[in-house]
Specification:
By secondary structure, the protein is mainly alpha-helical. It contains five helices and two strands, in the order ββααααα.
């Protein structure tokens, strides 16, 4: 192979972590996926409500309660100001924002289970 001044072989830098090799793009995607999303005020209201409900029941029941309260607003018969505020915040969330709340809640719930059961 003849190498001239105008020819070179482009190489991409690799990042090696615990024997696994990643390209720069792969590494950046992994870091982004692991980075917690910062939640907006409405997301934080819903997340805190989910966390508070978690101690009174289990995770499936918490999500069922959320669905119940959000749909109960059609009747206008909510139990407390806290629930009213949570439902108002929930209704302002986009699908993506709510998915981020669920992700944050799931991570938090798993941490709680790990603390309890080591």
């Amino acid at each position: 192979m003849k190498i001239t001044a105008n020819s070179f072989v482009p190489t991409e830098a690799k990042i090696i972590i615990e024997g696994k090799s990643y390209t720069g793009n792969e590494f950046n995607r992994l870091v982004q996926a692991l980075r917690p999303h910062s939640l907006n005020d409405n997301q934080q209201v819903v997340l805190e409500w989910l966390k508070n409900q978690h101690f009174d029941s289990y995770i499936k029941s918490v999500l069922s309660n959320l669905y119940f309260y959000v749909n109960l607003t059609a009747v206008g018969d909510l139990e407390s100001k806290e629930i009213t505020a949570m439902v108002a915040a929930y209704k302002k969330l986009s699908q993506q924002e709510f998915a981020q709340v669920l992700q944050a809640y799931a991570n938090w719930a798993l941490e709680q289970e790990e603390k309890q059961h080591g």
